[in-house]
Design a protein that fits this description.
Keywords: Ribonucleoprotein, Ribosomal protein. By secondary structure, this protein is mainly alpha-helical. Helices cover 41% and strands 9% of the residues. The protein is built from four helices and four strands.
Amino acid sequence: MKTAICNYTEFKIYPARGMKFVRGDSKVFHFINTKAESLFMRKINPRDIRWSTVYRRIYKNTTTDVSAKKKARKTKKVERNIVGASLEVIQQKRNQKPEVKQAAAEQAKREIKEKKKAAVAKKAAQKK
């Protein structure tokens, strides 16, 4: 059930209740009753009206939760296995020192270059 909020009193307006007023500049105002609408039209400040939510908030007569937001849940980090590598292997690689990682990367590059050279040499041998 969608509720609107009265532009004057800040009370909740339930469906099929209240009224709308559209000003000349096309701004829409929602009012809970004709009393609030009348006070708005007479330009009486809602801070001066003792029963309005604005007055009660200023003078701390009640605790109001006009725009209370839900607390967002904190996301939990979950670590899972990747296909072909267990969680222990992933942890081991993550905890390796940078020098070891760099050496392994260079070794892998060398192996790839050697394979390419071998493939090129094999093609050259086939052409002859």
